[in-house]
Amino acid sequence: MPRVNISVKLDGVLETDVKRWRAICSIGLAFAIPCESLYGEWFSDSQPIMGTNIHVEFWHEDPAAARDALAAVIDEMHRIDELMSPFRESSELSAINRGAGAGPVAVSAELLALLERSAEVSRMTDGAFDITYASAGRFYDYRKGVRPDEAQLTAAVQAIDYRYVQIDREAGTVRFAHPEVYVDLGGIAKGHAVDRGIELLRARGIDQAMIAAGGDSRIIGDRRGQPWTVGVQDPRKSGTMAVLLPLEDTAVSTSGDYERFFERDGVRYHHIIDPSTGDSAREVRSVTILGPEATLTDALSTSVFVLGVRAGLTLIDSLDGIDAIIIDGDGRLHYSRDLLQVEP
Ligand code: ADP
Ligand code: MG
Question: Under CATH, which architecture does the 7-84+187-340 domain have?
């Protein structure tokens, strides 16, 4: 389920909008005005894809073209899932994990570009973002409450280092410089999928839309003159919002320790891993990042979760056009510099 409770909130707004539109239309019909071409309509779809809920919503004047656009976005999400899922034997990601420890594996330009983007974020965050976290991360099963034992963890941590992923752009291949490396794009692939979906909508002339993949969303335009509202969930009160964000033309991602976790001896084991230890990062409870595109906000929300409040805000304050809201281990809110300037 989404950490940012977008679908629940926006469904409420959507209903009122549709009612209003129907009221206008019935008046319109009385005067024989073609409502659809004049007013348009909200279209939406939600599907379970990429292990999360994908929600697409936009304003369109032509129902047939709108249905076509919805289907195109959903198809795109399935395509990316098939390419990048660590759970599908047939995915390109699985092919890398099977073969790149032994030698170069050929991959598509799209996956290669996302691997390069991941490396860029790793360099930017001093390795807090590291897709080779999965060398240790693969030994956890949050649903079953399974974690690696000490010996397993010590060995696995040796295989965590983003520099082990060697990309040959000319040859279109990737190889691992350590035989035990395992990669997972769970910290960036949903953001990439959201950006791809938004590109598809834009190419169809749609300029008021929202796509959410779990906690990664991107909005284009406004909601017929009003901002969209995205909520940041209270990490310890399910269904309660800690912050409501009125947004336009923004990507927003939240990473939280309440999504996938289990507790053992009072310790919370969750799905965001500190690459230096192979264990869950525990300084903060949630991180929300705002920025121009979802690939980056997705990767940075995971990164800042690992970095914690001080190092995280220092990083975000050094980046143009990127903002952060962090909820720390005591439930206190911390804002990046630019947000503080607009906060009361
Ligand atoms: P989700 O939307 O899946 O909850 P997040 O953006 O919060 O994702 O990132 C968590 C996911 O990122 C994990 O499920 C895992 O796949 C991946 N991940 C965990 N730790 C790291 C890390 N240090 N660097 C890169 N990716 C990570
Ligand atoms: Mg993320």
Answer: Roll (3.10)
pTM of the model: 0.89
- Domains of the chain, residue spans: 7-84+187-340, 92-176
Q: Take residue 326 and report the two structure tokens written for it.
A: 């962090």
Give domain 92-176's CATH superfamily.
ApbE-like superfamily (1.10.3980.10)
Tens of pLDDT, residues 114-161: 999 999 999 999 999 999 999 999 999 999 999 999 999 999 999 999
pLDDT in tens, 36-91: 446 799 999 999 999 999 999 999 999 999 999 999 999 999 999 999 999 999 99
Structure tokens at 311: 């190092």
Report the separation in Å between the CA atom of 185 and the middle of ligand 1, taken as the mean of its atom positions. Answer: 8
| 277 closest CA partner among 154, 149, 147 | 154
Q: Ligand 1 within 6 A of 312 CB?
A: no
Q: Among candidates 329, 176, 178, 336, which has minimal Cα distance to 257?
A: 329
The helix/strand/coil state of 303 is: helix
